[in-house]
Design brief:
Layout lengths: L1 H28 L16 H21 L3 H25 L11 H4 L4 H29 L11
Length: 153
């Protein structure tokens, strides 16, 4: 279990760090491109939603790399994946037909089609959610993951 949890935590950090960096680069390089309202939150400009998401991702990466509490690390990723999943549900319920735009303009600048980016992000979100909840449940059920424990990290 220790190696599995350790690898998962580092993979979470890399994945969230990459998505955070894409958001920050997009906001820094093309700030005017995100003045339109967010499709889920309505009147809130998309730039604020992207900046908020990037901030949460940054905090999660910091926690994943610094904290010694394995359960806290897994719970943070589970919570964040739940938030991102709820945002996706909001997009679907609003019927916008838009992709998430979660990586800003980076994929467009690299020439990656929206549908590929969207599919990759859905898979990444599924991985974050299933792995974090699964490891958290498995560890708690077996008593392997305890608050304040360095086990698995």
């Amino acid at each position: 279990m220790r190696v599995t949890v350790n690898r998962a935590i580092y993979s979470f950090a890399v994945l969230l760090g990459a998505t955070c960096l894409a958001k920050v680069l997009s906001l820094a390089l093309l700030p005017g491109a995100y003045a339109r309202p967010d499709p889920v939150f309505g009147v809130v400009p998309l730039r604020y939603v992207l900046a908020g998401a990037a901030f949460l991702e940054y905090l999660a990466v910091w926690l994943l790399l610094v904290s010694g509490d394995v359960r806290l690390k897994l719970a943070a990723v589970a919570w964040l994946s739940t938030l991102f999943g709820l945002y996706r549900v909001g997009l679907w319920l609003r019927g916008t037909g838009q992709s998430c735009g979660c990586l800003g303009t980076v994929p467009e600048a690299l020439g990656i089609p929206d549908r590929w980016v969207d599919a990759a992000l859905v898979l990444a979100l599924a991985y974050l959610g299933i792995a974090s909840y699964g490891l958290l449940w498995r560890g708690v059920a077996r008593g392997d993951v305890r608050a304040g424990s360095n086990q698995g990290a």
